[in-house]
Design a protein that fits this description.
Blueprint lengths: L1 H19 L6 E9 L2 E4 L7 E2 L5 E3 L3 E4 L4 E6 L4 E4 L4 E10 L2 E17 L8 E4 L4 E5 L2 E6 L1 H8 L15 E7 L12 E6 L2 E5 L4 E5 L7 E5 L2 H11 L1 H7 L4 H7 L133
Parallel strand pairs: 9-10
Antiparallel strand pairs: 1-4, 1-6, 2-3, 2-5, 5-8, 6-7, 7-9, 8-9, 9-12, 10-11, 11-14, 12-13, 13-16, 14-15, 16-17
């Protein structure tokens, strides 16, 4: 009796200890890139905690990203899983043997994601969304689940007008590699199953859309450049912010007319460039030294030289211009030139404006000469002083 009671007590104690012992986590990869608000919730529950760079990711961890956030996970088989903004992703299956193709299973309930197969092609990998199951055969794919998927699909001609569930709609795009890829890479493909039907995308940039639960897949069809850019804006928010690309939600709020890619409008638009008039002229925005075509350069004023108040000495000339600005001596057969102010160049082809033409008998009178030897000035060619 006592022996049986002791055995029962020991068994109960062992069971309590086993229940209290934590289950060892199966590590599947590590966080290699973290942008902004990224958190992980453990399978046992509790509070979601921020993710640190190089933090280990375990099987069953639930990834949650905020607005303009991003997480990249490199798995043990070198598969790369990228999670975009406002996403909910869980890696719930991972089978890895270095000598065999690996198998990855993940569930995406919301947001954008990108998956690149690792070693061996990961032929048994699959990704589930609320409305579809995606089989991955050694390739790269991108997708989005939720309102963004419905907004992007609304701009695709192949989809047209169709009823979509904004909470569960799923858009999947095969990125590559293609058949012409060199280096031994396999082209691969993706199989999307929904509503009792399976369709295959085996070419780069082919897209498949599942609008709601129970609906058959639409596609494959070539995704437009606008749709691809909007998908990249969700997957890589920091790059989209630098390039000024709007995501689907922002695009829907600002777009007018046919859906498509919309670029942001700056709060203070730049002043448009001013065009110069055809015949020349100064531009208000041009630097001070700028002149438009056809402008005449500024010329120095032409003034007759005033006689000095005091005689100048030949050895010590006063108010004499530098040698570089002195007028060259006129040849013997050249006409006389009017005197000029010291230090000021003489205009060669400019006539001084006159109030009235001179009379035929009028002659040019030179200014009175003061005592003292002074250099004989030479007037500009064609210069006539006022009467």
């Amino acid at each position: 009796m006592r022996i049986g009671l002791a055995l029962a007590t020991s068994a109960a104690a062992i069971a309590i200890v086993a229940a209290a012992a934590p289950v060892a986590e199966q590590i599947v990869g590590a966080a290699t890139a973290v942008k902004n608000d990224v958190r992980i919730r453990k399978p046992a529950g509790g509070v979601a905690r921020p993710v640190a760079l190089r933090q280990r990711i375990a099987l069953g961890d639930g990834v949650q990203t905020g607005a303009k956030s991003q997480l990249q996970i490199v798995l043990l088989d070198r598969s790369v899983f990228t999670v975009g903004a406002n996403a909910r992703v869980t890696i719930d299956r991972f089978v890895y043997d270095p000598g065999r193709p690996s198998s990855v299973g993940a569930t995406v309930t919301r947001g954008a994601f990108r998956f690149m197969s690792g070693r061996g092609g990961s032929n048994g990998s699959s990704i589930r969304t609320p409305v579809a199951s995606i089989g991955v055969r050694g390739t790269i794919l991108e997708g989005v689940v939720g309102p963004d998927a419905a907004l992007i699909a609304a701009g695709e001609r192949a989809v047209g007008r169709i009823a979509s569930d904004p909470e569960t709609a799923s858009l999947i795009v095969r990125r590559g590699p293609g058949r012409a890829t060199q280096g031994g890479a396999r082209p691969g493909a993706i199989d999307v199953s929904a509503g009792g039907r399976t369709v295959t995308a085996d070419r780069p940039l082919q897209a498949i859309y599942v609008p709601r639960a129970g609906a058959a897949p639409i596609g494959p069809f070539p995704i437009s450049n606008a749709g691809l850019m909007q998908l990249q804006a969700i997957l890589h928010p920091s790059v989209a912010a630098r390039l000024g690309i709007l995501g689907p939600e922002d695009n829907a709020a600002t777009a007018t007319g046919e859906p498509g890619l919309t670029w942001p409008v700056p709060s203070q638009p730049a002043r448009p460039p001013r065009l110069r008039p055809p015949g020349g002229g100064f531009d208000d925005d041009a630097p001070p030294a700028y002149r438009g075509p056809g402008n005449i350069p500024d010329l120095p004023s032409v003034e007759p030289r005033r006689p000095p108040s005091q005689p100048q000495s030949p050895n010590q000339p006063q108010n004499q211009a530098p040698s570089s600005l002195r007028a060259a001596p006129a040849p013997s057969d050249a006409p006389a030139r009017a005197p000029t102010s010291a230090g000021k160049p003489v205009a060669t082809d400019m006539q001084q404006p006159q109030s009235a033409p001179p009379a035929p008998n009028d002659s040019v009178k030179a200014p009175p000469q003061q005592p003292g030897p002074t250099p004989t000035p030479t007037p500009a060619k064609g210069y006539k002083p006022p009467k």
